[in-house]
Each structure stands twice: as structure tokens, then as C-alpha cells.
Amino acid sequence: MRALLRDAETDLSSAEDGRRPPTDRDYQLDLADAVSDIAASDDLAVELRASQAALALIEERLAFAVEASGALGWWDWDITRDRVYAGEVFARMYGVDPAEAAAGAPLSAFVDGIHPDDRDVVAAKITATAAEAGEFREEYRLLGADGSVTWVYARGRCYHDAAGRPSRFPGVVIDITDRKCAERRKDALIELGDRIRDRDDVGEITSAAAEVMARALGATRAGYGLVDHADESIVIQPDWRLPGAASIAGLHRFRDYGNFVDDLKRGETVIITDVETDPRTRAMSETLLALGIRVLVNVPIVERGRLAAVAFVHYDAPHLWTEEEVGFVRTMADRTQAAVARARAEEQQRWLNGELSHRLKNTLAMVQSIATQTLRNATDLDAAREDLVPRLIALGKAHDILLAGSRESAEVSDVVAGALALHAGREGRFTVEGPMIRLDPSLALSLSMILHELATNAAKYGSLSQENGRVSVSWSIVGTTETTFRLAWVERDGPPVSTPSRKGFGSRLIERGLAGGSVTTDYAPEGLTCTLEAILGP
Fold it and tell me: How much is the pTM?
């Protein structure tokens, strides 16, 4: 149309200045140009509609991708009208109805979903970003209506209008809870190493581990217990718990809280998401709930095929365990057990060093006493040598027995055999019998030296000095109120016996009896009888 009007103006001007008027051919060409212009405009419209459709498709796909991620949400804040338009994921993160968010909700509706401890920080950052038309980047927590905490990373930008006033503030937010939890667990393992590295007390080690583990998991209570496998009981070390939660440190029997101890004995981790519904704890749920335990995990620590310890974590509210969290508890349990084993080994080493020092001093004192008494009662050096050497050998054998067996006790039969070893060539002349009884080191050494003196005297003056003489050594446990060890030395078929007129070191050693015990000696003509008694410890 614009071309036709232009041509008409041209024709009029040509007629006025004497030029040739337009022909039909000219009008045909002009009409063709006009049709071409219209066609071109139609192509532009089609192309524009196609571009708009493609853009809508891209936006739709982007929206689907964002929503499908389940962790990425978007928002667009119209600052002028105070309306926040947001997708479904963003709305649910902040506790806002998705339909309301799609239609536009005030900013305050979303602020309510931010953790109270983080609101001031986030508000200050938003205010600064809006004032500067800058970029917003912040990590903070959201607090759900059920008390759950979610970590998010938000990123956006504020735009100003032509007058320099804040107008729009779009952005995206992503759930980073898993990453924050992983970082917290990693930091907890580092902290655990720092806190227990130089500690040698089992209670301090387990208490520190419980605190680090509970804080990393946001638990109500955490701890570590030493297990008596046969008795199915556990001694819980000092535990860590939230303020107001009761401590459960002390002795407990597994069966009082359910039947999951069978799983622990098999080395299986016990995860109970609700004590009221799990068949292993349902019957004891009231007891557990009274202690503030609704959700629990027990990680067994097995040593030499037996349940030795348990690391536990409790929640008083619902909690869904992840594989990463359970793996973290297992790692904490392993590291705690390693630290406990180290502390025990160091404690045992200190005890051994002290015991070695104590025994060495006692041995030297005994050697000094034996040597002094032997020399004092000897008629000459040869006689002294003859008495001293066997006594020192007997003392050495007694120590060999202690070191060959338990460091804390010795078997009576081994003590007797060691004391009579110097007379081993007299086969058939000793009758030895008695039950299996273990003696502490002081009793074992004392008994060994007494038996050696009795055997030496028997070889010199008693039944072993005759070809047909024999000795009976028997022992037993007697008494009802106290556990008393009794050993009887009986000589027969030897020369007639009479009470000695002179007592040497050996006789005085025998009469002194066992450590803390008593001795009865009967010099009957048919043979010596010596009865030793001592009260055994618990």
C-alpha cells in the first residue's frame, strides 16, 4: 500500500514537469513489488512465531529439567510489587504451597522457611545485593515444619530499573545437604584423631568419640560399650547426649531392650528406624522410649570371632539413616576401638614394667636372704656351696614357671613339678595329685621354696634318704566362707623321725609357711607330715 501511494505521487509530479506519464506496464511492475513486500512481511511473521515456539520449548524443557532434579529450584522476585514467583522445588524447600508460589507470594512467606539462626545473615546479604545491583551467593540452612534441617546454596542477581531502583531479583537454589554432611563427617574424623591421639584413659577416649560422633550426626545420644559376650551384657562408658537427655552409662543386659543382640553376635550392624514397629524391639519399646530412644544404630566390634564392643547412636525423633551415615559410624567405631586397644596395651605395658621391677627387687631380696642364711648356718664353704646352689636353682625354676604361664598366676601342679625337678631321678617315689588351681605370684614363689626345702630335707634325713622311702604331695580347696588352699606333704618308709634339736634356714623357711597362711608340722616316728594352708584371693 505504501508503494502504491508513493507511485501515485511520482505520476503527478511527472505530468506537471512534462515527463512521460506511467504506462500499464509500470503499474504492473509496481503491483508486483507491493505483493513481494507483503509476502516478505508474512515470512517474518512465520519466522517470529517459529522462534517464539522454539523459545517456549526450550523454557519448558529447562523447567522440566530443573523440577526433575529435585534439588534445584528457581525464583524470580518482583521487588516493586513484592511478589516472588517460584517453581515447585523452590516452594517446597521453603515450606510454601507450590500453587501460591506459581501465582506469586510475598517474600516474607519464603523467609519463614529459613533457619532462625541464619535469617539475619541472609536478610543482610539480600539488602546489600539489592542496594548495589550485585550478585547474591550464600550458603544457609532451611528449617522444615518437621524439624528437619536442609543446607542450600543460593545464587542470584538484582537488577535496577532506568531510575536506578531495585526492580527484579531472580536466582536459583540447590540442596547441598549431602555435601555439607560429608564435610562435617570428614571434619569429625579429623577432630577425633586430634582429641584421642594422646589420651590413655579408656573412658576419656570413648567419651570424646561419642561427642564427636553425635555432633556430626545431629544425634540425641552416642556412646561406646564393652561387651561380655557370654553374659550378653554391656558396660557403657561415659556417653554424650543432648541437654535434658538421660545418661545410660553403666551395666545393661541386651535382652532387657529387645533381641537384637543375636544380630550383633553375628557381626551385623543393627539399624532400627522405629523401636515401636521393629519386631526386635517392639515388646520393649516403652523402656526404650522412656530413655529417649526411638531410632538407634548399633555397630558391633568383633575380636577373635567374639563380640567385644558396640558403638551406638540414638535419636529421640524419626531419622532416616543413609549408607554414608552408617559407614561413618563404622569408621568411628573402628578408630575408637583402635585407640582403646592402644590405651590398654600401654596400660598393660606399664603394669608389666612395674611388675618386672617389683619381682626383680623381690628376687634380689630373696637371693640375699637365702645366701645370708645359708652362709650363716654352714660349717664351711663347701657345705655352703652345696646348700646355696640348689636353693638358687629352685628359685629360678619357680620364676620360670611364672613366666611360662600366666603373668599373674601359676598352676599348682607346675609349681610342684618344678620344685621336685632336682629329685626327678627318684622315679616312683613321689605321688602327686590335686585339682587344677592357680596361685598368685607370691604364693607360687613361697610354695616353690618350701617344697624345695622339704624335698632337700627328705633327701638328707627323711624318707628319700632310704631306698624304699616315698613322698605323697596332695592339695585341695577347703572351707565354705573363705576359699582356702591346702597342701599336704607326707613322708613314709624312711628312717624314724624326731623333732630336730637345731633349726636352720630351711626349717625356719618351712615354719614361716605360705604368704599370709599357716603351716602345721608333725614329726611322727613313721614320717614327717607338713600341712600348708593359705586363703586364696577372689
Answer: 0.54
